[in-house]
Design brief:
Elements: H1 11-32, H2 41-48, H3 68-74, H4 78-87, H5 110-138
Helix pairs in contact: 3-4, 4-5
Length: about 140
C-alpha cells in the first residue's frame, strides 16, 4: 500500500472523462445520421450545457477527419453552427486534409451563404479581438 492515494483517478477526472466519451459518442451518431436529419436532442442539450466548456470541440473524427463544426457547415445547419460557435468551437479549425470549415463543399444554396457569412463574421470578430489584445499588450 502506498502512503499517497493516486491522484490520476478522482471523481472530477472521471466525470470529465465520462463527459468526453459522451460527447464523442454523440458526435459519432451525428456523423452517421442522414445529412438531412436533425442533430440528436442529447447533442443539442450537451452543447447548450455550461459543461461544454470542458470539451474540445475541435476534435477530429478518426474516420472522416472532420470536426463537428465541419459537419454542421457541410449539412448547412446554421442553428447547429451557431450553437457550436457559442459553445466554443474554433472557427479556424482545419480538417485532416487542411481545409477550413465550409471550404470545398459541393453544391451552392442560400443556406451556404448564411453559414459562410456567419463563420466569416465569427472569424473576423476573433481576428479583431486578437489584434486589439496584441496592441494593448504591446503598450
Amino acid at each position: 500500500m502506498t502512503p499517497f492515494p493516486s491522484l490520476t483517478s478522482t471523481p472530477l477526472s472521471e466525470s470529465r472523462d465520462t463527459l468526453a466519451r459522451n460527447y464523442l459518442s454523440l458526435f459519432s451518431n451525428y456523423l452517421s445520421s442522414p445529412p438531412n436529419a436533425p442533430p440528436p436532442p442529447a447533442l443539442i442539450t450537451l452543447l447548450s450545457s455550461p459543461r461544454v466548456k470542458l470539451l474540445d470541440l475541435s476534435t477530429l473524427d478518426p474516420t472522416t477527419g472532420t470536426s463537428i463544426l465541419h459537419e454542421a457547415a457541410k449539412r448547412k445547419d446554421l442553428r447547429m453552427v451557431e450553437l457550436l460557435v457559442r459553445a466554443g468551437a474554433d472557427v479556424f479549425v482545419r480538417d485532416r486534409r487542411g481545409r477550413a470549415v465550409g471550404e470545398g463543399e459541393k453544391g451552392y444554396t442560400k443556406a451556404d451563404d448564411q453559414v459562410k457569412v456567419f463563420l466569416r463574421q465569427c472569424a473576423y470578430t476573433t481576428f479583431l479581438f486578437i489584434h486589439v489584445a496584441d496592441v494593448i499588450l504591446s503598450y
